[in-house]
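Lecture notes, part 5. Sequence design as translation. It can be helpful to think of inverse folding as translation between two languages: the language of shapes and the language of residues. The source text, in structure tokens, appears below.
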């Protein structure tokens, strides 16, 4: 079967590794477009939805085609020609979730309307049954995307609540990091079991919590299940999910994870989140200053930071000073194989601080985070 996942654009190389780990055979990686096409068996559906840490949504791919000057008639045509009786049962309801990017003479609402009509007519032709539309709580979610000249039609196996909504968050930081991005940055760092992981501006604790879940092998689906009524579309039953759950071996090993922030209110929230994620005992939360790390720590192996940008929080002059003082302090606690990974939307200001503090840039790339372009820097001494 063919599938495609969606993820935060820019992090494709990390999600690609995860897909391959779950047994998917990569067909195409859309760099910086947040999409990966691949094939795999049915088991990959519960695997990705229950275990993946970097994917936002998994769809079964039904149709994909480049159509120059694509029109609404083309959309109707391609949707009508799919055999929907394989995917929707007579008594089930469905909803089209449309998406459009690029210049077109129609809107995404038009796509939804036309694709919905085509699906209903196609089903009537094959089964003589008129399917019900339910936009609020559909049994089957159909994704119809027109991205520039390309049409993609798929069945959403994840549901309306994407996988970055983990279900453990009870405290909402005003600028919290997306959990799939946090996990991707941890994978990027190649943090080893015996190494210290420090998030020096941890806010509500997303990075340390994702790190603890990863090392303790706690599946992200565990908390989604309770909170969002985790379910797949009804095409294979739940035996496969049960099988996957039985194979998971969580551990209670000790890992060296530190979350630091100067704001006690955020730290209290981070602890609430960690408690809800069952990893409070794995993380050491400390109230402190990221510009004075050298006064507290001798040596840290992996530092992952999501500092304030000045767009969402604080003002630019303060941010510039913070970036400089943070890099000057963090440098003193790094050793030859330490890695520092930073995600920020203030990339120019951060680059100035990198140059001033003489860091080696091993890698850097853009990541789209909720409509905001951010840059990830991978630094060593
Ligand atoms: C963008 S937020 C981090 C959000 C976090 N990644 C999360 O998911 O909730 C930046 C954080 O940096 C903290 N911060 C700013 N300056 C700091 C400093 N000098 N020392 C420690 N923390 C600082 C703020 O309190 C804020 O919580």
């Amino acid at each position: 079967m063919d599938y495609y996942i969606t993820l935060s654009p820019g992090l494709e190389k990390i999600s690609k590794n995860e897909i391959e780990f779950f047994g998917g055979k990569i067909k195409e990686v859309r760099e910086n477009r947040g999409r990966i096409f691949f094939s795999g068996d049915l088991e990959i559906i519960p695997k990705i939805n229950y275990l993946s840490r970097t994917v936002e949504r998994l769809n079964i791919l039904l149709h994909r085609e480049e159509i120059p000057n694509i029109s609404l008639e083309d959309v109707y045509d391609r949707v009508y020609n799919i055999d929907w009786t394989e995917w929707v049962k007579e008594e089930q309801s469905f909803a089209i979730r449309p998406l459009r990017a690029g210049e077109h003479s129609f809107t995404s609402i038009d796509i939804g309307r036309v694709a919905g009509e085509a699906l209903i007519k196609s089903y009537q032709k094959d089964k003589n049954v008129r399917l019900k539309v339910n936009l609020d709580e559909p049994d089957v979610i159909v994704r119809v995307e027109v991205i520039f000249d390309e049409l993609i039609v798929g069945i959403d196996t994840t549901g309306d609540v994407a996988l970055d909504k983990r279900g453990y968050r009870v405290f909402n930081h005003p600028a919290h990091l997306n959990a799939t991005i946090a996990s991707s940055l941890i994978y990027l760092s190649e943090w080893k079991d015996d190494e210290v992981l420090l998030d020096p501006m941890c806010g509500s604790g997303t990075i340390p919590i994702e790190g603890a879940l990863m090392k303790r092998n706690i599946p992200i689906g565990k908390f989604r299940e309770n909170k969002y009524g985790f379910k797949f579309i009804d095409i294979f039953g739940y035996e496969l999910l049960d099988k996957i759950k039985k194979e998971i071996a969580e551990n209670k090993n000790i890992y060296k994870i530190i979350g630091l922030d100067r704001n006690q209110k955020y730290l209290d929230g981070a602890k609430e989140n960690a408690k809800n994620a069952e990893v409070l005992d794995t993380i050491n939360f400390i109230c402190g200053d990221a510009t004075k790390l050298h006064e507290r720590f001798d040596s840290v192996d992996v530092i992952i930071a999501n500092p304030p940008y000045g767009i969402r929080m604080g003002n630019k002059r303060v941010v510039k000073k913070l970036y400089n003082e943070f890099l000057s302090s963090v440098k003193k606690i790094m050793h030859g194989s330490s890695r520092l990974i930073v995600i920020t939307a203030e990339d120019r200001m951060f680059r100035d601080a990198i140059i001033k503090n003489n860091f080696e840039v091993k890698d850097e790339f853009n990541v789209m985070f909720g409509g905001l372009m951010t840059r990830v820097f991978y630094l060593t001494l």
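The translated text above is only one of many valid answers, since several sequences can fold into similar shapes. The mean pLDDT is 94.
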